[in-house]
User: Fold this.
Amino acid sequence: MTLDLTLLLIPPLACAHAAFWGILISNLAYLRRHRPPSLESYPSLSVCIPARNEAQNLRRLLPTLQSQDYPDLEVIVWDDGSEDGTSNLLASIDDPRISSFRGEGPPQDWVGKVHALYQCTRRASGEYYLFLDADAELLCPDALRTLMDRHVNSSTRVSSGFPHLKGSALLLVSLVPHALLQSLPWFLVARTQTSSLSALNGQCWLVDQALYHNHEPHAEVNGEILEDVAIGRYLKAQGYPPSLLDVQDVVAVHMYDSFGAAWRGFRKNAYLLLGGTVPQFAFMYGGFVLTWLVAPLLSAWFLASLYGFKIVTDRASGMPVYVTLLAPVSYLLGLALQLDSALHHWTGQVTWKGRSVHTSSLAPASTTDGES
Assistant:
């Protein structure tokens, strides 16, 4: 690389790093905002869980739901054509608060998880809905009370949780909070009109029943693999921007049980997160290559900055120290994963839980802005 090219690249890369630091610091401040006192009375709550081949995860999650001291609670699990022991496990649960239903797969043009959650809401009766992934775990008996305290006292009617992430392949998994804390300036979500400046974390989010059924977000984004991002944008376009809550003290998510499963799971989403089209992917991926790979080769300051990003996001998300020390490995794995995801989407080879995953792109903000 010539000296002239190096001098040309350093200013924009320095600006990019400064912007990332600004977003990161503002998001940490946003998450640390004052936590509210307990509510005097709690509204009824429906917990909606999608499940396809989730027997192992449900053995961990369901007991933590059964131990909750929430006063008016129902749990609805939609078994989406599971081929493991999920159906038998659900049939063995003897708790009047937990109901399970089984389908044999989503209709055409629906994504399985989206359809499962939509079916849960057809049967839910609570004043609020909590959408929770099957690999989640509640960490204390008052977890649902705490979630509701924070949700009701948040500035919006839709809230998304930032849970503690556990499991295998933490060198990959640690890039999730890294991205969540650096990609979207959450303090601007409720302060701007642009619906593309919004998202949800589909692992854990809360909404009141009336808002949900007035806008039926799962039906609106029925074919989206990244349904949580699409729902966040859609609801903001309707005038309901989501907030992000730090729930690491009450909710954990065991994302994957092996490196291979993690790679396949992230492969499904990575290309879509980088735009889902060839031009958008090329632009975004080029930016990541410059920021994560080229910049540290140009200057030790950029290398220190990258390590700084991982130190801060890993500490904020409770990652082990070894994950931080191996930060360059995480960044290189991230680049390889993004490229692998693109190649598999381009060739139509993405699968998940025995089903083909078809590429979908998020609807442009202009298609939903102002709609009711």
